């Protein structure tokens, strides 16, 4: 497998501001030569899953997408590899397994008519802003599937994000190669028996907020929030494919399988 991997001659380094991540960054800089992030063939990210998501979003924003090898110096570190110290990094990169991921594109129309677009690596969620229950119409590929979902909100998750907020909302865990998306209600009240759906990832999903003035709803793409939305369109942004690098025995697809057997 190592011979199939590209050689990463120029490495960039990003890290969180935690004490652990800063100490690890110092250790790595004493052993390896790093270039500015925008000149790198691949990027080393030190921190937790938040650091990884921030790194990927920065790449999406500047249009310079490169493979990322994360080293866990945070808490959960689901998207990261273990940190074993500064030695052996180039060998780990040579042997790393590449995992492609596809983000979602969220296009939002606000109640004012203003529009904006953001990408999400984990999920797009719609959430009520006040004590009033959100009421949301759900359409898939131009067909209204649920005229009115009443509850706290709804989310659409990628396979990568299916073990995050989606799982907490009792949504399904999706294998990375499933080519599926999880559509999961958040504390639904009506329809009472609806627990969500699994959709092909070529689906185009639209959420329309019913009674938006009385029941305001916010749309969130990972950490990017838009308030007082009227309508949200979501689809996979295939032209923005990203790559995460994992140690072969810690690949993300195996972690997602293992997560389903946690008791």
UniProtKB/TrEMBL annotation:
<dbReference type="InterPro" id="IPR017438">
    <property type="entry name" value="ATP-NAD_kinase_N"/>
</dbReference>
<dbReference type="InterPro" id="IPR017437">
    <property type="entry name" value="ATP-NAD_kinase_PpnK-typ_C"/>
</dbReference>
<keyword id="KW-0067">ATP-binding</keyword>
<protein>
    <recommendedName>
        <fullName>NAD kinase</fullName>
        <ecNumber>2.7.1.23</ecNumber>
    </recommendedName>
</protein>
<dbReference type="GO" id="GO:0016301">
    <property type="term" value="F:kinase activity"/>
</dbReference>
<keyword id="KW-0520">NAD</keyword>
<dbReference type="Pfam" id="PF01513">
    <property type="entry name" value="NAD_kinase"/>
</dbReference>
<dbReference type="InterPro" id="IPR002504">
    <property type="entry name" value="NADK"/>
</dbReference>
<comment type="similarity">
    <text>Belongs to the NAD kinase family.</text>
</comment>
<feature type="binding site">
    <location>
        <begin position="163"/>
        <end position="168"/>
    </location>
    <ligand>
        <name>NAD(+)</name>
    </ligand>
</feature>
<feature type="binding site">
    <location>
        <position position="160"/>
    </location>
    <ligand>
        <name>NAD(+)</name>
    </ligand>
</feature>
<dbReference type="Pfam" id="PF20143">
    <property type="entry name" value="NAD_kinase_C"/>
</dbReference>
<keyword id="KW-0808">Transferase</keyword>
<keyword id="KW-0521">NADP</keyword>
<feature type="binding site">
    <location>
        <position position="152"/>
    </location>
    <ligand>
        <name>NAD(+)</name>
    </ligand>
</feature>
<feature type="active site" description="Proton acceptor">
    <location>
        <position position="49"/>
    </location>
</feature>
<keyword id="KW-0418">Kinase</keyword>
<keyword id="KW-0963">Cytoplasm</keyword>
<feature type="binding site">
    <location>
        <begin position="122"/>
        <end position="123"/>
    </location>
    <ligand>
        <name>NAD(+)</name>
    </ligand>
</feature>
<comment type="function">
    <text>Involved in the regulation of the intracellular balance of NAD and NADP, and is a key enzyme in the biosynthesis of NADP. Catalyzes specifically the phosphorylation on 2'-hydroxyl of the adenosine moiety of NAD to yield NADP.</text>
</comment>
<keyword id="KW-0547">Nucleotide-binding</keyword>
<feature type="binding site">
    <location>
        <begin position="49"/>
        <end position="50"/>
    </location>
    <ligand>
        <name>NAD(+)</name>
    </ligand>
</feature>
<dbReference type="InterPro" id="IPR016064">
    <property type="entry name" value="NAD/diacylglycerol_kinase_sf"/>
</dbReference>
């Amino acid at each position: 497998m190592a011979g199939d991997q590209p050689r990463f001659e120029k490495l960039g380094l990003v890290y969180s501001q935690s004490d652990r991540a800063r100490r690890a960054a110092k250790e790595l800089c004493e052993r390896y030569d790093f270039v500015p992030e925008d000149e790198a063939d691949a990027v080393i990210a030190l921190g937790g899953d938040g650091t990884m998501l921030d790194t990927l979003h920065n790449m999406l924003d500047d249009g310079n997408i490169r493979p990322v090898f994360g080293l866990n110096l945070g808490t959960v570190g689901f998207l990261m590899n273990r940190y074993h110290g500064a030695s052996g990094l180039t060998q780990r990169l040579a042997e790393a397994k590449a995992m492609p991921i596809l983000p979602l594109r969220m296009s939002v129309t606000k109640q004012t008519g203003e529009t904006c677009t953001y990408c999400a690596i984990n999920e797009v969620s719609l959430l009520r802003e006040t004590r009033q229950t959100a009421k949301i119409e759900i359409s898939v590929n131009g067909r209204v599937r649920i005229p009115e979902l009443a509850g706290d909100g709804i989310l659409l998750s990628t396979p990568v994000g299916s073990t995050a907020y989606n799982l907490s909302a009792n949504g399904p865990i999706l294998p990375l190669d499933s080519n599926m998306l999880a559509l999961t209600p958040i504390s639904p009240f009506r329809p009472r028996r609806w627990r969500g759906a699994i959709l092909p990832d070529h689906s185009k999903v639209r959420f329309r907020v019913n009674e938006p003035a009385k029941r305001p709803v916010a749309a969130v793409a990972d950490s990017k929030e838009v308030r007082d939305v009227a309508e949200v369109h979501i689809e996979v942004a295939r032209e923005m494919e990203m790559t995460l690098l994992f140690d072969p025995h810690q690949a993300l697809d195996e972690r997602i399988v293992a997560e389903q057997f946690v008791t």
